[in-house]
């Protein structure tokens, strides 16, 4: 269960109600059209789970339980969402396998990661929506050569799975070499694709509770369109209304388990909302991600006494389901910290969270608090849908195309020119 506590001082008057109503209808049109498909992913991906169960019995290595390393080769939307979910849930997930990500073409990073992987016990997932992502195909080629895989041999081709659009270059390559492929719906963009095969395939292989993840997401989206989550639209209105005064949105998450969820949020928010609007104006909101209590000692000072140009969302876990305590030990010269002796670390981090949130509010900084009752697959499903819906709602109000990324494409074209001179 998740509680959303908004403290924004936004008057929902007549104008606001009209903007919210118009935006909601725009989101309904998106959902009902064939253009934007992420709204239907939780329901549609339930069928994918059935296909994975069949695949698990078809692949010789999986059937014989010989896979110990699952390696995701992908970048951006092809890896961040998967990493966000896995890192959030891994501590209470039972599996003998390890999950690795090859997402950067930094040669040191590639070499150091591959040192930890046993190629004889590995399953490589090549993830690219377009099928031609330069970083992904380059790492894929490197692995083929390094380990001398011959894809004409079934024993080698079964070491790979591809996740891509049907009919893409990677899809055709998979067909040629009889590599198992799972397809991403054409109407689902990379950064919105975590609940498609992009995330569900590796998470299923790592024994994550994907059915709970999907069901919670589906229920939350349904409740939004049944107008039971109006806080999302009100928050989106507030963000767009004060965007020039408060152009920076801070996500301050009080658990290390949120580290990669925060990074997923940054891509979703930045790549979706940093655009030119219908009038040609440059618009957008800048995401900043922090982890408490670590960043109390680095970034909080800027929030409290720096420029008042930030909104803050604090993300909290009520029950860590861990009873570890600070020992009741008296240390010479350190007696001024004895007041915390005997308390749990859970209470310490949550009281730090409460103190931070109260300080932010008392300093008239727009803020809201999202509280999870515990770390669970269902709560992660809700969080993913919450931020995707919020992003789409803000995009509607900014009057932009939330789902393209022309700025990214400019850089890709320049890269091609540099190598084709």
TrEMBL record:
EC number: 5.3.1.9
Catalytic reaction annotation: alpha-D-glucose 6-phosphate = beta-D-fructose 6-phosphate
A molecular function (GO) term: monosaccharide binding
Matches recorded under InterPro entries: G6P_Isomerase (IPR001672), Phosphoglucose_isomerase_CS (IPR018189), SIS_dom_sf (IPR046348), SIS_PGI_1 (IPR035476), SIS_PGI_2 (IPR035482)
Active-site positions on this chain: 271 (proton donor), 297, 412
Keyword terms of this UniProt record: Cytoplasm, Gluconeogenesis, Glycolysis, Isomerase
Main location: cytoplasm
BP-aspect Gene Ontology terms: gluconeogenesis; glucose 6-phosphate metabolic process; glycolytic process
GO CC entries: cytosol
Pathway: Carbohydrate biosynthesis; gluconeogenesis; Carbohydrate degradation; glycolysis; D-glyceraldehyde 3-phosphate and glycerone phosphate from D-glucose: step 2/4
Record's keyword annotation contains Isomerase: yes
Places the protein is found: Cytoplasm
Keyword Disulfide bond included in the entry's annotation: no
Homology family: Belongs to the GPI family.
Role played: Catalyzes the reversible isomerization of glucose-6-phosphate to fructose-6-phosphate.
Protein name per Swiss-Prot or TrEMBL: Glucose-6-phosphate isomerase
Organism: Halarcobacter mediterraneus
């Amino acid at each position: 269960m998740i509680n959303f506590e908004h403290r924004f001082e936004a008057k929902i008057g007549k104008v606001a109600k009209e903007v919210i109503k118009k935006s909601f209808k725009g989101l309904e049109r998106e959902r009902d059209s064939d253009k934007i498909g992420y709204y239907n992913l939780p329901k549609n991906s339930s069928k994918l789970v059935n296909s994975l169960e069949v695949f698990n019995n078809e692949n010789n290595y999986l059937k014989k339980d010989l896979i110990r390393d699952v390696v995701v080769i992908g970048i951006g939307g092809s890896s961040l969402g998967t990493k966000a979910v896995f890192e959030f849930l891994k501590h209470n997930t039972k599996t003998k396998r390890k999950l690795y990500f090859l997402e950067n073409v930094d040669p040191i990073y590639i070499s150091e990661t591959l040192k930890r992987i046993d190629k004889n016990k590995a399953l490589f997932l090549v993830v690219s929506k377009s099928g031609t992502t330069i970083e992904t195909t380059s790492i894929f080629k490197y692995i083929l050569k390094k380990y001398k895989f011959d894809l004409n041999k079934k024993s080698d081709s079964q070491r790979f799975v591809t996740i891509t659009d049907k009919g893409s270059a990677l899809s055709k390559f998979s067909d040629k070499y009889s590599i198992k492929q799972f397809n991403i719906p054409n109407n689902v963009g990379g950064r919105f694709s975590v609940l498609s095969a992009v995330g569900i395939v590796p998470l299923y292989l790592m024994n994550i509770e994907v059915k709970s993840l999907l069901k919670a997401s589906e229920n939350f989206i349904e409740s939004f369109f049944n107008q039971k989550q109006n806080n999302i639209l009100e928050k989106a209105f507030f963000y767009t209304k004060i965007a020039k005064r408060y152009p920076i949105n801070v996500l301050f998450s009080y658990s290390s388990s949120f580290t990669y969820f925060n990074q997923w949020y940054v891509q979703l928010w930045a790549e979706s909302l940093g655009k030119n609007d219908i009038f040609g104006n440059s618009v957008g909101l800048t995401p900043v991600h922090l982890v408490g209590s670590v960043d109390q000692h680095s970034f909080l000072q800027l929030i409290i006494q720096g420029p008042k140009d930030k909104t803050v969302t604090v993300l909290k876990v009520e029950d860590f389901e861990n009873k570890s305590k600070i020992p009741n030990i008296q240390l010479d010269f350190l007696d001024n910290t004895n007041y915390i002796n005997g308390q749990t670390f859970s209470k310490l981090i949550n009281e730090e969270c409460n103190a931070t949130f109260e300080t932010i509010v008392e300093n008239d900084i727009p803020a809201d608090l999202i509280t999870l009752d515990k770390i669970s697959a269902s709560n992660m499903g809700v969080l993913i849908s919450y931020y995707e819906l919020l992003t789409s709602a803000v995009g509607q109000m900014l009057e932009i195309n939330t789902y393209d990324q022309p700025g990214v494409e400019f850089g890709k074209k320049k890269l091609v020119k540099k190598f084709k001179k």
